TrEMBL record:
Bias-annotated ranges (Low complexity): 138-158, 190-205
Name the record gives this protein: Protein translocase subunit SecD
Segments passing through the bilayer: 383-403, 410-430, 436-461, 482-507, 513-532
SecDF P1 head subdomain domain: residues covered: 257-364
Pfam families listed in its UniProt record: Sec_GG, SecD_1st, SecD_SecF_C, SecDF_P1_head
Membrane topology: Multi-pass membrane protein
Compartments where located: Cell membrane
Presence of keyword Transcription: no
Region (Disordered): 126-216, 564-589
Organism field: Kribbella koreensis
Task performed by this protein: Part of the Sec protein translocase complex. Interacts with the SecYEG preprotein conducting channel. SecDF uses the proton motive force (PMF) to complete protein translocation after the ATP-dependent function of SecA.
Gene name linked to the record: secD_1
Residue intervals of the Protein export membrane protein SecD/SecF C-terminal domain: 365-541
Length: 589
């Protein structure tokens, strides 16, 4: 039964060649030729955390888990660890991968529950030292700002009652420090030095004892003020524990501003809810806050005290893990246990601040499920062992193919080579674009895939040989055998793919790497069988070596268990040569 593939198998081969050229061309453009290795192959520490709600009630929501992942990522990066990876896994797991071993302190840090604190701002200055401006320099900052190192930044907005305020709340106006219009910071004509790459700021606690009395009554002394003057927002500084009963030197998220903060006057647990919304008859986004009963009383007391302070002490700092997220201004007491943070918010900025407030107020508790530490030497040994195992498996498959299928083993070798090239390019590019890291379990998935790919060849070759035994010609058997074998191949690969998907969804940790590579190579196997293996067999069937059943082709009559190939004549059926009868001497009688 003739098909388009039979008449023009070269089309599929051309498509495959174009895909390979494109994949390796992208690798060349990206200058990435090697896969990204997991920590078990290059050494490092992997921590799997299981999240649960602090108050019980089952697993956290997807939003809570995502916000917790962002908080942990800030913690890890704030500790100065490069190339760290934080990812969610399943419904309640977070996996943290950190290069290098002996990360015990970091393991303890990332598992701590994140709580939000509210503090009074006693001073704020530029986060980095400002170079002296030339005599003729013209300030490049906003007209309201004076470019002097000692200048105090002016608040971006003030708090005043909302025109739509209800008895339950008042307006609380502010701007998100890292997303909305930031608090103006003095800028000279010469740009100040900034970190070359964004990173989580590193706050520093102020030396001193804990504040045991009313935190609203605390005032910075001369020593604290002098220490703050020399403090700079430097990402390389170690990040100490943010203690709520102690004052704090903190930085904004972009390192542009440093803050002298008092002890915590409100905790995140005093906040019961936070959400971003557009008010009725309004056009700008705002963040709505709702405090608990006790929290509302604390908030009223705090805003009453803060509103009486001179700038910048009338700023209310929202601090998460020691990082100042926002600094709204308080101009009057806010009763009722509800407030609105308003300002020049975009939807994304308002939702980001709402999430920080909401999930700081409802923290996620973590239990350390597993900690795996692999040295660089052990990682290298495991990589070598994995490669060796893969080569041994590949060699056994190739040996079996040539011993059993003889010449058809060439098809197996070429198909495995094409599948290997596609898999390698896919793993490299996925590592570059999506951060996929090849782990030891992933290598195991690749080794298993060799057998899955070989199984597809066995199904097709055996179906082809059956068709020949049934009396069809080789060319016809290639097509009819493929028509029947491809359904079996699709079914078998679909089961493998389904198993990989289920395993990936339900698994935790490194097992996901096995499931991912197994699923990836199964898809590549289907692609290679349809686009390369079948067209190659079609082309080989047209050659004399395979078409006429050479003894080494794997399609010879003896190897197939038949007397002859269809279309070939039996040796005994050939016409016998006519024998001449010698005439008797003397002529006929």
């Amino acid at each position: 039964m003739a098909t388009t593939t039979t008449s023009r198998p070269g089309r599929n081969l051309i498509v495959l060649a174009v895909i390979l050229v494109l994949l390796f061309g992208i690798m060349a453009i990206a200058k990435t030729w090697g896969p990204k290795l997991g920590l078990d192959l290059r050494g490092g520490t992997t921590v799997t955390l299981t999240a649960s709600n602090v108050g019980g009630g089952g697993d956290p929501t997807a939003e809570q888990l995502s916000e917790a992942k962002n908080i942990i990522s800030q913690r890890v990066n704030g500790a100065g660890v490069g190339e760290a990876e934080v990812a969610t896994s399943g419904k309640n797991h977070i996996t943290v991968s950190v290069p290098g071993a002996n990360q015990d302190a970091l393991v303890k840090q990332i598992g701590q529950t994140a709580l939000l604190n509210f503090r009074i701002v006693y001073d704020q200055q530029a986060g980095q030292p400002l170079p002296p401006a030339p005599p003729s320099a013209t300030p490049t900052g906003k007209p309201s700002a004076t470019p002097k190192p000692s200048a105090t930044p002016k608040p971006a907005s003030t708090i005043k009652p909302s025109s739509t305020a209800t008895p339950n709340g008042r307006a609380w106006s502010s701007v998100l420090g890292h997303a909305a219009t930031p608090t103006p910071t003095p800028k000279p004509s010469t740009p100040s030095a900034k970190p070359s790459t964004p990173a989580t700021p590193t706050p520093s606690t102020i030396p001193g004892a804990e504040v045991t009395g009313d935190p609203l009554a605390w005032k910075p002394d001369a020593a604290t003020t002098a220490a703050f003057a020399t403090f700079t927002c430097d990402k390389d500084k170690p990040k100490p524990k943010d203690e709520e009963k102690k004052p704090l030197f903190s930085c904004s998220q972009d390192f542009s501003t440093k803050y002298l903060l008092g002890p915590a006057i409100l905790k995140g647990t005093d906040l019961s809810d936070a959400s971003a919304a557009i008010p009725q008859n309004g056009v700008n986004w705002q963040v709505n806050l709702k405090f608990t009963g006790e929290g509302g009383d604390k908030f009223l007391k705090a805003t009453t005290a803060i509103s009486k302070l001179p700038p910048p002490s009338n700023l209310f700092a929202i601090v998460l893990d020691g990082v100042t997220i926002s600094t709204p201004t308080v101009s009057q007491p806010i009763p009722g246990g509800q407030a609105q943070i308003t300002g020049s918010f975009t939807e994304t900025e308002a939702r980001d601040l709402g999430n920080v407030l909401k999930y700081g107020a409802l923290p996620v508790q973590f239990d350390t499920s597993s900690v795996e530490t692999i040295s660089a030497q052990l990682g290298g040994d495991q990589l070598s062992a994995g490669i060796t195992a893969g080569l041994i498996g590949l060699a056994l498959v190739v040996l079996f193919s040539f011993l059993y299928y003889r010449g058809l083993g060439i098809v197996v070798v070429m198909s495995l080579t094409v599948a290997a090239a596609l898999t390698y390019a896919a793993v490299v590019l996925l590592g570059k674009s999506m951060g996929f890291a090849l782990t030891l379990s992933g290598i195991a998935g690749l080794i298993v895939a060799i057998g899955i790919t070989a199984d597809s060849f066995v199904i097709y070759f055996e179906r082809l040989r059956d068709e020949v035994r049934e009396g069809r010609s080789l060319r016809s058997s290639v097509e009819t055998g493929w028509a029947r074998a491809k359904h079996t191949i699709i079914a078998a690969d679909s089961i493998s793919l389904l198993a990989a998907v289920v395993l990936y969804v339900l698994a935790v940790g490194s097992v996901k790497g096995f499931a991912f590579t197994l699923g990836l190579t199964t898809l590549i196997d289907l692609f290679v069988v349809f686009v390369f293996t079948k067209p190659i067999v079609t082309l080989l069937a047209r050659t004399d070596f395979f078409g006429h059943g050479h003894k080494l082709s794997g399609l010879d009559p003896e190897h197939l268990g038949v007397e002859r190939l269809p279309g070939q004549m039996k040796p005994s059926a050939r016409p016998a040569a006519k024998k001449s009868t010698p005439k008797p001497v003397g002529g006929e009688v």
